[in-house]
Write a structure and sequence with these properties.
Oligomer: single chain
Number of helices: 6
Order of helices and strands: EEEEHEHEHHHHE
CATH superfamily: Ribonuclease H-like superfamily/Ribonuclease H
Strand order of the largest sheet: 4-3-2-5-6
CATH topology: Nucleotidyltransferase, domain 5
Shape: globular
Helix content: 25-40%
Number of domains: 1
Strand content: 15-25%
CATH architecture: 2-Layer Sandwich
Structural class: alpha/beta
Length: about 230
């Protein structure tokens, strides 16, 4: 059973590929997404006409170079799709110094962060039933990923944005938000039942298959804050 823990950004990335419907039946586009499980920040994405290990290699190379990732600190987690287990990608990740991690066969909740993100994407009311072309898909997804990283207040990270958490701005945002809450409480304590309101705290750790606190080396059925 894969068991992965991150207590900061760029320690564990999860990635997956989902299919997007094209303009005619049977035509599909493929959306590749790599997400940091601690910050929920999407570190890389692309739309292509096929699943390809070579394209995945390019995606990871660009993401690592852009973010300046420490090559000895990153674990890359995925399900057992052919692209994920491909030799070219394995060789590239090994060259970069990254470790690979895989879900168990036929166990979908071993990759919960990617699955949860795809659900967020596809359940949005403006998500098209189909895309007219790859440029159409990219034109729709580009503002979505900007929103998700920089504006979306994620419940799993105490209503911070993924970018704030990933780039170390979360505590500064927390302090500013607390000042606003304190001012509101001082002016109208009755609106808060006499209790000072507090912003939420970031989780200190996030897990894929978190061990059960009562029984060592056993796992819960689901992951916290997925």
């Amino acid at each position: 059973m894969p068991r992965r823990c991150a207590n900061g950004p760029n320690q564990v990335w999860s990635w997956d590929i989902t299919k997007l419907k094209g303009p005619v039946p049977g035509m599909l586009y493929f959306l590749y997404v790599v997400i940091d499980i601690f910050s929920r920040y999407v570190v890389g994405w692309m739309v292509a006409d096929r699943e390809s290990a070579k394209l995945a290699v390019v995606l990871f190379e660009e993401a690592c170079a852009r973010l300046g990732v420490d090559v000895m600190s990153l674990i890359v987690h995925a399900d057992r799709g052919s692209s994920m287990r491909s030799r070219p990608l394995g060789e590239k990740l090994a060259e970069l110094g990254h470790l690979r991690s895989f879900s168990r066969p036929r166990v979908s909740n071993d990759n919960p962060y990617s699955e949860a993100h795809f659900k967020t994407l596809k359940y949005r009311p403006d998500f098209p039933d189909q895309f007219g072309s790859q440029p159409h898909a990219r034109a729709h997804l580009d503002p979505y990923f900007h929103w998700y990283n920089h504006d979306h207040r994620h419940s799993g990270i105490a209503l911070r944005t993924p970018a704030d958490v990933h780039f170390g701005r979360a505590e500064k945002v927390f302090a500013a938000r607390q000042l606003v809450l304190d001012a509101a409480f001082a002016a109208h304590p009755e609106r808060f039942s006499g209790r000072r309101p507090l912003t939420g705290k970031l989780p200190s750790q996030v897990w894929i298959n978190k061990p059960n606190s009562a029984v060592a080396m056993q796992t819960t059925d689901s992951i916290e804050n997925a």
